[in-house]
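To close the section, here is one more complete example, presented without commentary so you can practise reading it yourself. The ligand is flavin-adenine dinucleotide.
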Amino acid sequence: MTTTHHFDLLIIGSGTAGLTLALKMADQARVAVLSKSQLEEGASLYAQGGISVVLDKADSLQSHIDDTLRAGGGLCDEEVVRFTVEHARESIEWLIEQGVSFTRDDMITETYHLTQEGGHSHRRVIHSADATGRAVETTLLDKAKAHPNISLFPYHIGIDLITTRKHLATEQNSCLGCYVLDIKKDQPKTFLAPVTVLATGGAGKVYLYTSNPDVSTGDGIAMGWRAGCRIANMEFIQFHPTCLFHPKAKSFLISEALRGEGATLKLADGTRFMPAFHPQAELAPRDIVARAIDHEMKRLGQDCVYLDITHQSKEFITSHFPTIYKRCLKFGVDMAKEPIPVVPAAHYTCGGIMTDMRGRTDIDGLYAIGETAHTGLHGANRMASNSLLECLVFADAAANDIKKRPKTSLPADIPHWDESRVHPAKEAVAISHNWDELRRFMWDYVGIVRTTQRLNRARQRLSLLQQEIDEFYSQHHISNDLLELRNLADVAELIIESALQRKESRGLHYTLDFPETSEKSAQNTIIAEKKPT
Ligand SMILES: Cc1cc2nc3c(=O)[nH]c(=O)nc-3n(C[C@H](O)[C@H](O)[C@H](O)COP(=O)(O)OP(=O)(O)OC[C@H]3O[C@@H](n4cnc5c(N)ncnc54)[C@H](O)[C@@H]3O)c2cc1C
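Output:
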């Protein structure tokens, strides 16, 4: 017998977006929050830099808006940008009320220390030392654990949304909840609620190299797409130029601050290459540095390049970069004596499920917030530290909207997850092989520098993989890895199709076949709901 849970609100994802919404709703609703791993695991936990907010007197809301629009390469929705920027201060005040401790300038004036990051023309990034995400995530999680109306479900992975159109054959499409796999018990469950929210984060794991944690497999985007949502701007994937390259080092960023302190990028033979690409050399904008590294790696067929900061003393390095120093040393690289092997890595998914300014999607009763959503804030390129802000502002906007919804009851005849026609998989190698293959061809053919030929090559490979995955999925019991692989394949399809549709280079999408930006193409790429297979 399948277990069924009933809640007023079902939130899939326990990152900054999901927990903010849960806390804002919990006094009025019984809330379930699902996380497919430990509760704190997600991109939020690893955010280092901070959250953008206008607090300095010399700064202005208009300047934050202008910087965001400039970074977004002509595709930001100006109304959304203004809304987000105008709600930043109250979002930060709310975090402070919850107990998040941000770094102060000094204890006498009690002002907060603000840093400046790429694209911002003022100091406006509030932070908690170099571990802002951890401070936010752990504070919100402690609050959620203590709230009697919030039920937390770690190791519960959403399989597919339950919709009236698919499961009750209605014309109009409403969301009724989600089928969920309890990973520890290996047991499918049914979660029902009049409102469901996708807060599942980004999709960096679709690429071989990523700064994202393992949970960032684009599940919400894939589930939303399959259920009937439109998806926008998936070609705009932000790559961070320097991630530690080591077979065993997963997802570790080497901060831009090293280049700020004079570190240079070199090839294996010691040649410095950035001056040939940009007058600012290593301090060129992120996407240009990432593109140059990719170009050199592809030209020479090399696995990585090297970041050299050995001109600085060991004392300087260990005092300025203690975490990076320790982490590199753990993998046998003494950065005070030798260059660090680095590769660019997929970092942020600018596109996602299309929502309005209240987080509503195309499906009644379904919302999307955080990195999984496309609100129109980021356009063709996200400005640093605007993403945690988006999580906070749109969780609040969604909460305000959900509170106003009339109470509805759910139909009685919702079917349970049906496993009667599948059998246990005999071996997992097909799944792990396809995981690896998908992430590698996405890296090689749909990465930082694209061509139409490479994208078509990826499309062909993906189509074969999708046939295998669909066959495997229809015949076998589900598992966490199989669900993630299926979602990654859907996300890969969205990225490839969006990239093929954009016949220009803009923001984070760069193709050698259309290297110029075209005014005619200054619009979002929208992919309609997925056709059933
Ligand atoms: C290394 C790094 C540094 C960053 N630094 C900054 C920064 O300084 N400033 C900034 O603004 N942004 C930064 N970002 C981006 C920012 O951290 C993310 O955009 C943001 O945290 C996303 O929050 P979220 O709540 O949408 O998702 P996440 O925090 O990723 O949470 C996703 C949640 O969804 C759950 N989930 C996913 N799929 C399922 C499923 N199928 N079923 C159940 N649960 C599921 C996960 O388990 C997790 O709980 C950084 C990102 C990285 C990776």
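Once you have examined the tokens, check your reading against these statements. The first helix runs from residue 16 to 25. The first strand starts at residue 3 and ends at 6.
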